Amino acid sequence: MKTYTYVKPGLASFVDVDKPVIRKPTDAIVRIVKYYLWNRPPYYQRGCSCLPKWYHSWSRRDWDC
């Protein structure tokens, strides 16, 4: 199956991955059919490293930087 993946900061593409498998009773497979990022700057999709410093001051906990 294909998934939209952030390969590295500034590069996102569709990548072939294995189908997900439930291994434990607490696992879940979730399909996102629609999302909307309200009031997010356009560089949101470019990856964490290109965000301005002021943006990190309030949303740092949301990123794996």
From TrEMBL:
Q: Which UniProt keywords apply?
A: Oxidoreductase
Question: In its UniProt entry, what is this protein called?
Answer: Alcohol dehydrogenase
Q: Which domain of life is it from?
A: Bacteria
**From the Swiss-Prot or TrEMBL record, what is one GO molecular function term?**
alcohol dehydrogenase (NAD+) activity
**Encoding gene (name):** adh_1
| Enzyme Commission no | 1.1.1.1
Q: State the organism named in the record.
A: Streptococcus pseudopneumoniae
